[in-house]
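Example 5.3 — Gustatory receptor
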Amino acid sequence: MSLYTSNSLFPTSMLAIPNGQPTQAEGKRNSIFLDVTPARTPYLKPASPNAVGPLKNNLMSDISRDIVYENVKPVFTILRVMGVLPLTRPSPGFNQFSISSPSMIYSAVAYFSLVSYVLYLSLHKVQILKTSEGKFEEAVIEYLFTVYLFPMIVVPIFWYETSKIGNVLNDWVAFEIAYKKLSGRALPVRLYKKSLAIAIVIPALATASVVVTHVTMVHFKLGQLIPYVFLEILTYILGGYWYLLCETLSVCATVLAEDFQMALRHVGPAGKVAEYRALWLRLSKLARDTGISNCYTFTFVSLYLFLIITLSIYGLLSQISEGFGVKDIGLALTACCSICLLFFICDEAHYASHNVRTNFQKKLLMVELSWMNTDAQTEVSMFLRATEMNPSQISLGGFFDVNRNLFKSLLATMVTYLVVLLQFQISIPEDTSGDEGDYSNTTSSSTITEAITTTMTTILTTVAAKKKKKH
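Solution (predicted structure tokens):
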């Protein structure tokens, strides 16, 4: 048997290959082919300077900037300018939070300046446009302008969660690298224009909304407008930030599902199925971590929007018998904007969870297994089991899942509390003399305090009962 040993590309110390067949296979007629990814050929220095060496793998190169961050960058910039997101980037593709960083110092100075300004303005309280009767609903509207200042609490909460947000962004970089290694192309996320539009339109609309509300409902000075504008922009820019995170998950899930469907058209896709399963598990973890990293922030935002919607709609309903006036324009605008924001928060999270899990399950259930080998069928079954066992719902720290059912439940609960408030209004007797006016105003203030206390107690009782049922 002749041996072929003259190969200048490889050292002569390698085993001889008889007629192109390995010596270990001599005497065996049946060859075994495994459906696995072959090992990469090692790079060996050519024996001759004129010999042609193997090409280097230039598929993966160091990422100079992470795609997800760059797409959401306009909104991140707005949050950092407002002192809400003290995130630092020591190098492209790496995000971290440091309490001693210049970004954190700037955020602390901006926040405490705002708090000091609000405390100063509290000495000159905003005057509500009141009628001579001093009605119960006017007391509710007065409390509404105090509730408008509640988003100040969300700033330190967001600071606390900045480190988790940075970890999620770093996980996105790892996902981008894994996707590029598998597909050979960069992650096709194109949300920069939407992010830029959100960063421009939301501050403009939020400022206009506050101006209209204050013109129609209160006597205000120009200086008193600043904190309300800041907090209104903060509330709605957080909604835009949440929308972009969920939209990124939806886009990546759709792209991954299409790529996976294309990969199944090739013969023997067992290795590819395993790689796509690992990539899907990364995406599923990102969906869960998105909710966990923003847990307390959006729990507070959801409850805040619920309270704003309830009080605003009550202010509108209380004027039905007398007809709508100029003062109701601000209430209607506040109620509509808050309902839309709450709906988008719930709907986008529902849509993202649906794309991450349900779309992949559909692709897997529609796979034709008859032409596949045993290994490929096993991988597909394991993939399907992974989608069932790994939850992809966006949950706020386990308190509740953010989906359309949450929006429906909040609206149903809001109707109950509106009925309670309207009953309190009906039960208050109308004052008939000037001497009784002071007593009526005092009764209105004490009654509204009792109503809000009762409402908050009912909310807490309902939440506790739901959690008890789950356990």
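Remark. Residues 67-429+436-470 form one domain.
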